[in-house]
Amino acid sequence: MTAHIIDGKAFAANLRSRIATQVSALKERGITPGLAVVLVGEDPASQVYVRSKGKMTVEVGMNSWQHKLPADTPEADLLALIDTLNNDPAVNGILVQLPLPGHMDESAVINSIAPEKDVDGFTLLNVGLLATGQKAMVPCTPLGCLMMLRDHLGSLSGKRAVVIGRSNIVGKPMAQLLLRDSATVTIAHSRTTDLEAICREADILVAAVGRAHFVKADWIKPGATVIDVGINRTDDGLVGDVDYAEAVKVAGAITPVPGGVGPMTIACLLANTLTATARANGLPDPEGLTP
Ligand SMILES: Nc1nc(=O)c2c([nH]1)NC[C@@H]1CN(c3ccc(C(=O)N[C@@H](CCC(=O)O)C(=O)O)cc3)C=[N+]21
Ligand SMILES: [Mg+2]
């Protein structure tokens, strides 16, 4: 028996084509969604992601702006740029690429983004709205994971979900989304006692620890659905947080790295930009893009 491979790359391509159709419909009404991405510094991986985001934004028919600032930019200059973008009606979504250089206060920068343009869903307002079950902008990586889980499993109600990782970007919002779908959720992390035993109870296992091959095949309940959020650059290339070669023999379904969660993250960024545009224009949320 070998696991069903959840093809995130194909899923993301399908999602982008549905987004493109809805962008065309908006353009016929004179509305073009626009996404501004801000990159501070020259981190090579970040540059690759930002380029890829810009390309896909244009491909679905949206306006795309990239603001590249030197690593030693004063925080006040970045805040001034965000203020300009907040007040620009052509800009529906703002993404400040993380991590930021060490001299900047990441929370202060993120929370200066207008919540309705916060397509990452990282501002305090959006975090609070999600946590209280209200209409929020939902972080892209967990949203992409949720879409794949629902597509593969149908209802998540009553299922045991274990999220390994407690970050504000992935682990915590992932847990909130799973709870909203009535899964029974455990958030585990590197300090969790008996982590393996806890993972073995999971019908849904989401690995977001940031350590290559961290999750072993014998931590996986036979038939479980495994979502690998890890992006680890190793001598063997890009690998996830799950020991994939062994895990495919045990899991019922699994996302590969690359070609799993990553492409869905970018597609969900576009989905959120479309949602932000609809809301800014008093239109209903786009079909099938919000949780
Ligand atoms: N404000 C902010 N929002 C983010 O969403 C954000 C961020 N900062 N900082 C960095 C992380 C990382 N991230 C990825 C997006 C796509 C892939 C992706 O497409 N990965 C491909 C492979 C890409 C490759 O080959 O390097 C894949 O998994 O198939 C990966 C990682 C978004 N992030
Ligand atoms: Mg952690």
Automatic annotation (TrEMBL):
Asked whether the keyword Translocase is assigned, the reply is no
Its pathway, per UniProt, is: One-carbon metabolism; tetrahydrofolate interconversion
Gene Ontology terms, cellular component aspect? cytosol
Residue limits of the Tetrahydrofolate dehydrogenase/cyclohydrolase catalytic domain? 6-120
- Which keywords has UniProt assigned to this entry? Amino-acid biosynthesis, Histidine biosynthesis, Hydrolase, Methionine biosynthesis, Multifunctional enzyme, NADP, One-carbon metabolism, Oxidoreductase, Purine biosynthesis
- Describe its assembly: Homodimer.
Biological processes annotated in GO = L-histidine biosynthetic process; methionine biosynthetic process; purine nucleotide biosynthetic process; tetrahydrofolate interconversion
Query: What is the E.C. number?
Result: 1.5.1.5, 3.5.4.9
Annotated Gene3D superfamilies: Leucine Dehydrogenase, chain A, domain 1 (3.40.50.10860), NAD(P)-binding Rossmann-like Domain (3.40.50.720)
Q: Report the catalytic activity.
A: (6R)-5,10-methylene-5,6,7,8-tetrahydrofolate + NADP(+) = (6R)-5,10-methenyltetrahydrofolate + NADPH; (6R)-5,10-methenyltetrahydrofolate + H2O = (6R)-10-formyltetrahydrofolate + H(+)
User: What organism does the UniProt record list as the source?
Assistant: Paracoccus caeni
Function recorded in the entry: Catalyzes the oxidation of 5,10-methylenetetrahydrofolate to 5,10-methenyltetrahydrofolate and then the hydrolysis of 5,10-methenyltetrahydrofolate to 10-formyltetrahydrofolate.
- Pfam families cross-referenced by the UniProt entry: THF_DHG_CYH, THF_DHG_CYH_C
Name recorded for this polypeptide: Bifunctional protein FolD
* Molecular function terms from GO: methenyltetrahydrofolate cyclohydrolase activity; methylenetetrahydrofolate dehydrogenase (NADP+) activity
Tetrahydrofolate dehydrogenase/cyclohydrolase NAD(P)-binding domain mapped to chain residues? 139-279
The residues the record assigns to binding NADP(+) are: G165, R166, S167, I231
Entry's family note: Belongs to the tetrahydrofolate dehydrogenase/cyclohydrolase family.
